[in-house]
Amino acid sequence: MDETPRLAADRMLMRLARWLRLLGADVITDASLTGAELLKIARADNRILLTRDKRLRTAAGVFFVEGNAIRTQLREAVRRFRLDPRAIALTRCSRCNHLLTPVARELVSRRVPPYVFAGHDRFAQCQECGRIYWSETHPERIHAMLDSIAF
Ligand SMILES: [Zn+2]
Known about the structure:
This protein is an alpha/beta fold. It has two domains: about 5-80; about 100-135, no CATH class. Helices cover about 30% and strands about 15% of the residues. The protein has five helices and seven strands; from the N terminus they run E-H-E-H-E-E-H-E-H-E-E-H. The longest helix has 11 residues, at about 70-80. The mean pLDDT is about 90. Zinc ion (ZN) binds near residues 96, 128 and 131. The site of zinc ion (ZN) has 8 residues, from loops.
């Protein structure tokens, strides 16, 4: 559990990248790069590239994702990288992959819905994009998705 997977996801797998970040994985993406270009960056940065590009299938440092559907893709990645599908980490921003840092409750009062502010004590913020997270960010959606996968 202490080893955070270091990954990169090509532009066909942006949605998968967001899900893997919710489970605590460190996943870089860059929609402007091809899979081959991102693979170079991933290798230099000690990351495994997740791709659906068949030309990269047998390349070193690549995890070829077989599935077309997000559920299948997530199942494959969770197994391969031994992620805990029940552990919503909320350590990383699902949008931009930056680490979240705790933020004082009073500082978020105007930035989250009132019912959220009233019902939560602990908040975290992405230092890159400013998005605010709390312990139950989208819990129903996340758990419904994970439950439907049947790991
Ligand atoms: Zn962010």
